[in-house]
């Protein structure tokens, strides 16, 4: 059972990491990379996704397609997709580059939008399943 869980987390992390690479790169190429918009989009959309998955789990009475499936989705896919370490480094780089206001804006937008996105994902799924 532990080996299966590890393999599902590994597979989910692989898929999530690839998705992060493509989404962040696409956003960066479209909008520009002077501000870390790609990472912001990844983190907010990842919060929306994990919120929606949490809503599904709650609506299913805590049973959501089995524990192994949750390991794949929550730990692997969402964990591999979101980028808190990149967010932290980009914030530091903005601050070290003398861009203190954009660094603070990035922290506020990231935290605020991710909390809103996780709540939106959670409650929209819960409401849709009622």
Automatic annotation (TrEMBL):
Residues that, per the record, bind Na(+): 79, 82
Source organism, top-level taxon: Bacteria
Spans traversing the lipid bilayer: 35-60, 72-92, 104-129
Annotated localization: Cell membrane
Regulation of its function: Na(+) is not transported, but it plays an essential structural role and its presence is essential for fluoride channel function.
Membrane-protein topology: Multi-pass membrane protein
Catalytic activity line of the entry: fluoride(in) = fluoride(out)
Function: Fluoride-specific ion channel. Important for reducing fluoride concentration in the cell, thus reducing its toxicity.
Family membership noted in the UniProt record: Belongs to the fluoride channel Fluc/FEX (TC 1.A.43) family.
Protein name listed in UniProt: Fluoride-specific ion channel FluC
Organism: Labrys wisconsinensis
Gene: fluC
């Amino acid at each position: 059972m532990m080996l299966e869980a590890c393999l599902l987390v590994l597979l989910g992390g692989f898929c999530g990491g690839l998705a992060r690479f493509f989404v962040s790169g696409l956003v960066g190429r479209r909008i520009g990379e002077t501000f870390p918009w790609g990472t912001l989009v990844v983190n907010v959309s990842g919060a929306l996704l994990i919120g929606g998955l949490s809503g599904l789990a709650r609506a299913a009475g805590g049973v959501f397609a089995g524990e192994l499936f949750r390991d794949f989705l929550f730990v692997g896919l969402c964990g591999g997709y979101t980028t808190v370490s990149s967010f932290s480094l980009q914030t530091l780089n903005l601050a070290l580059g003398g861009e203190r206001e954009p660094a603070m804006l990035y922290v506020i937008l990231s935290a605020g939008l991710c909390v809103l996105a996780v709540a939106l994902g959670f409650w929209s799924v819960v409401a849709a399943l009622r």
